[in-house]
Design goal:
By secondary structure, the chain is α/β, with parallel strands linked by helices. Helix content is about 55%, strand content about 10%. It has 2 domains: about 1-65, no CATH class; about 70-245, P-loop containing nucleotide triphosphate hydrolases (Rossmann fold). It is built from 12 helices and 5 strands. The model has no long low-confidence stretch (mean pLDDT about 90). One of its GO terms (molecular function) is ATP binding.
């Protein structure tokens, strides 16, 4: 009775100390005879490893919630069998975080329904899984939020939150030509990130049409200079995946 009470107290203490993974692993050790043959050092190492894995899982979950990705997508789940212009070796190479560490951008273009948004989210998830922070925004909503923020005095705060994300996904860029302050807003976003953070942009427009979509020639040059510098361009093609699924 006393031994069981002491063990429960120890588990409770571990939980109170925020060592939930270690507490769960300790409980499992107490409930299974298979651990009796192990030395103290072996059992303790298992507790430490479990706590480390539990903490990393919680950090990953926190980064995923903060990213607000549109799709729960991974590079490993991508369809490479359907002809879409995806080069397996190139895409799989992005599963490591080398492109984030090098502050490289990834620009994904292709027709509607081809899977650009899914790919963009899969690339972002690869970075998140490697320990980087990310944020997903559709371009129309991003510009709307910046316009509102300019009006209520939060403009610099919103720009700051965008610049802090190590990976920023701007989805559906160029659905409509940029107007008003949108080109300059985009330049402000990219200026804070250029050669310091990674940006993923998806668009139905080929990259050589972005200059026209941006409107103002001077701003267009500045925006494209920051996007294309150190960038990978993925040009998708083929039939809509939505049509295929239906």
């Amino acid at each position: 009775m006393g031994g069981k009470f002491r063990r429960n107290t120890q588990i409770g203490t571990l939980t109170d100390l925020g060592l939930k993974g270690m507490a769960d692993a300790f409980r499992e050790q107490l409930e299974s005879v298979q651990y009796l043959e192990l030395s103290f050092e072996e059992r303790f190492a298992m507790l430490v490893d479990r706590e480390a894995m539990d903490r990393e899982a919680r950090r990953l979950a926190t980064r995923l919630r903060a990213a607000k990705l549109r799709h729960q997508a991974t590079i490993e789940d991508l369809d490479f069998h359907t002809p879409r212009g995806l080069e397996r070796s190139m895409i799989m190479g992005f599963s490591s975080s080398h492109w984030v560490d090098a502050h490289q951008n990834i620009l994904v273009t292709g027709p509607t329904g081809i899977g650009k948004s899914y790919l963009g989210c899969a690339l972002a998830y690869a970075g998140i899984r490697s320990g980087h922070s990310a944020l997903y925004r559709r371009a129309p909503a991003l510009f709307a939020d910046l316009a509102i923020a300019r009006g209520d005095g939060r403009y610099l705060k919103v720009l700051g939150s965008l610049s802090r994300a190590e990976i920023l996904v701007i989805d559906d860029f160029g659905l409509t030509p940029l107007t008003g302050s949108e080109p300059s807003d985009l330049l402000e976003v990219l200026e804070d990130r250029s050669e310091r953070k990674s940006t993923i942009v998806t668009s139905q427009l080929p990259v050589d049409s972005w200059h026209e979509a941006l409107g103002d020639p001077t701003l267009s040059d500045a925006v494209l200079d920051r996007l294309l510098c150190n960038a990978h361009v993925i040009q998708m093609n083929g039939a809509s995946m939505r049509t295929k699924k239906s």
